[in-house]
Amino acid sequence: MLKPFLLFTVVVLLVFTSAPASAQAGKGPDMQARAKKLYDLDCALCHGATGDGKTDLGKDMQLNMLDWTDPKALASWSDQAIFDAIRKGKGKMPPEDSSRAKDDEVKALVNYVRHLAKDQAAPAAQPAAAPAAPQSAPAAPPAPSR
User: Fold this and answer.
1) In the predicted model, is pLDDT for residue 24 greater than 80?
2) Which domain holds residue 57?
3) C-alpha pair distances (Å), 102 with each of 26, 68, 77, 84, 97
């Protein structure tokens, strides 16, 4: 009677201790580095190094690329929709084969793509132009001498 209870307890503990790892799928420094490497190898050719979608190949193939540096570009896309587009392909975009990237790596790639807009530096505020120095009134002509 004690053995089944112990076995059940061990299984429950294993499930709960492994939950944070699965909840963090696609995150962490190692996964971020892997996602950047995958992006650079498999995505940047068409989507651009910064994610702006302005590449010669994209123009040549007449692709309508989203500008991922714009936070609004992916606002209507769920993480699952981005994952599916990467994993299954979309239009002329080839799928990311599971032998090339595991699901956790694709999840990290989704996070990487989402952060392309966040990583863009906000444009530096232009300093206000200094107000022009007030012009002094023109000098009065010298008084005529008598």
Assistant:
1) no
2) 27-118
3) 10, 23, 21, 13, 8
